[in-house]
Amino acid sequence: MIKPEPSPQDLQYLVAQAGLDADQLRRAYRQLCLIRSFEDLIADRYYIGKTPEFNMAAGPIRGEMHLAVGQEAVAVGVCSLLQESDAVVSTHRPHHHALAKGVEPKKLAAEIFGKASGLCRGKGGHMHLFDTSRHFACSGIVGASFPQAAGAAFAFRKLGQRHVAVAFAGEGAANHGTFAETLNVASVFQLPLVVVIEDNLYADSTPKWAALSTVHHFQRAQSFNVPSYVVDGMDLIDVYRVAKLVIERARNGMGPALIEAVCYRYRGHFEGDAEEYRTREEVERWRALDPIPRLEERLKVLGWADEAMLSRLRDEARQEAEAAILFAESSPLPEPQEALRGVFQ
Amino acid sequence: MRKLRGLAFAIAEAIDQEMAHNERLVVLGEDVTYWGAVFGFTMGLFPKYGRERIVDTPITEQTFMGMAVGAASVGLHPVVSLMFVDFCGAGFDQMFNHMAKNHYMSGGQLPMPVTVITAIGGGYGDAAQHSQVLYGLFAHLPGFKIVVPATAYDAKGLTARALADPNPVMIFGHKLLTGLPFLPFEGEEEEVPTERYTVDFGQAAVRRQGRDLTIVAAGLMVPRSLKAAERLAQEGISAEVIDLRTLVPLDETTLVASARKTGRVLIVDEDYMSYGLSGEVAFRIQAGALGSLKAPIQRLAVPDVPIPFSEPLESAVIPSVQRIYEAARSLVGAQALA
Hints:
The complex is a heterodimer. By secondary structure, chain A is an alpha/beta fold.
């Protein structure tokens, strides 16, 4: 869902309408850059020990790796509107959501490397990241985020807290029973829940046309009387505008909403994916819509940043990501006996 | 005959050969076309049979398991891929309460020829939701036959056998035995016939003859136990290694005969320790061989914790060659070493 590019005048109107000022938009830009750098560096380290022969068990980062390069604007557009006590439940592709929700990059990186200093003492790994201090959780099981976020929203209401819960999921998960079941419950209970579908067109290797009966998710959500919006997931400002509306409504007791964010992952479903199911040309077409240069252009048009400032923000973000990776690499592995602790409190 | 590396191609070849002879076979599941169900169990089928018979489903385990139940009841034989066994939770009700029970509950009216093929096991850093074995869960419930191949020869023959079975059969293929290039491989290249054949259910294989103790294993634990047995042999300890091949039906005869012969039994299992394979096998053996046992039956399994991500933690919980060796050595004790 690529929307018309706004004229300079319309752009000013759009950001004013969204309540975005120069500081906020520059911070959002820095966040996009932080996530991009973080994911690039994880990709780089992931292939240590995995080339020329790709063996998932080798190298400093073992197991599967699902990176979110290209999908940063969805995470930042939504999460920059959240408070620390708002809950986010993410997926098997969780790094961008975690960073956008304010999870400490060092602890995040350390967990991905399986280190004792990681968020979960090395027990969780890349698909199982938890940070109660930031109210962030995720799951490696597709479709698991919807009801858990609804549960958090349910609890916030019961406890009389004006917090909001956000469930992120891919379009593949929106075919899962939990999607429909959660929308129904959220609607009937009027829960402060925002469901964000990151529609990147492919569920693993399965193209959307082979698995979805309708192109759009908002149609399905509307049938549960959940207000629903389609946004350009490669455009931070578009995501932010809509997210602001629905998060404020949810916080004020006006019930759930769905955001359908059309976006794209430039990398494979996981690292090592041969991507037989799509063409290089398609990937390149989507790269032309990259959220980072698009936001750069708009910041310049608005007169809110020049090239020197953008470059400084990019460098800062890069350095923060590098420091996180360095922290992870230099941290010790957990002691083997840690494996036997923590099944129960 | 030709050499094959791993289970994945062997299973895919069995499905291919049976599909060519049986039009009722249809493959259902996530990523079964381009990705061959990720772990290769359906590789090569999509170009040959197309989307008509090799069907990518949406990510809806409950629904495609339920569809298999419905399709089987009216004449198809669905071959269902459960990408990782860990995902069974999302389709559990249809499997546990329907697939496994409908034939019985209907007084024998409803046929249920369904073959579920799933990937199991850890050892490559995929953590708690993608590394489990869980065959014990399914073996516990009446109504599933449980196949755990350890060799390519068995994988092909047992799969062909499953595809001729009128009952629900689950095939558990260990990821580290698939032979796929992106994972470690702990099996061996073997001779596997190109033609069709079957391997019967309920017949354990004695992979190595021995006198001093019996090691009982399934899946990946078979090659690990064989490696441990080689090290034990260097110290003069003679270990018999039994590959269960199928957990349901279970070959009690071979187990009891071996236990009577050696008098000592070590059960090695990659599933969780409690309420599972190791306890069940121990019970069956003591019931048939108590008088011959020289020591309490021992077991090595995942010590009732989820599979942790970090390498030293994961290695600490999944039975290794070293720990099998140590457990066997301690079971045999000083007598045999003397």
